[in-house]
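Mods, move this if it's the wrong board.
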Amino acid sequence: MTILVTGGAGFIGSNFVLDWLAQSNETVINLDKLTYAGNLQNLASLGKDARHVFVQGDFGDAALVASLLTQHQPRAVVNFAAESHVDRSIHGPSDFIHTNIVGTFNLLECVRAYWGGLETDTKAAFRFLHVSTDEVYGSLSKTDPAFTETNRYEPNSPYSASKAASDHLVRAYHHTYGLPVLTTNCSNNYGPFHFPEKLIPLMIVNAQAGKALPVYGDGQQIRDWLYVKDHCSAIRRVLEAGRLGEVYNVGGWNEKPNLDIVHTVRPA
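Not the wrong board. Structure tokens:
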């Protein structure tokens, strides 16, 4: 058995690959473009593990994705690939539109063609899991209730708008074509291999170097933090037992974060 993971050399993706192979003998085909946020050193502990097959390439490259699907016949695709930094999206939004929207579209088209050609039993068991973000819901004030999957989308940056668009594409491919999709929306992750420009590692590195600690806005903003390995556990659980076409929030703003599927909306 095999799964295809896109963006598996990034922060969350590499943790998912490592956790998956620590608990399963199922082969992972790991497709990553190795942009600034992708790092093969994250996966160095796998060494020459035959269960991990790394392919450098763009998840929006239709010919490459189609060949990987045909060659390896995965039972599931888990899509981590994305441009994900808010500040970068403000200074250069075009990469976010191209990667998060057009790239996801190209991936969905390849997966739809592959899934459509599977035998009946294999087709029924196939899953496409799209990893998204809580930022599609916008911002909360101190008195607002926690986000749930029924919150409307109110993205406030080019990054979150591009992820919202990709979420809508995934949903549309389920309702239009019947593609068996699942979507997870997570809060801010932290943990091993966190890219150094992100808040927690940036603060640590600056403190160690005796540099100033940057403050966003007036410093009153509050973030929910999710340990990346808990997030990976939640993704495995959704992949295993999630209801097709539904969205699952993963983070501290759930009643039971991380491992349990507690909120289910947008039924097929």
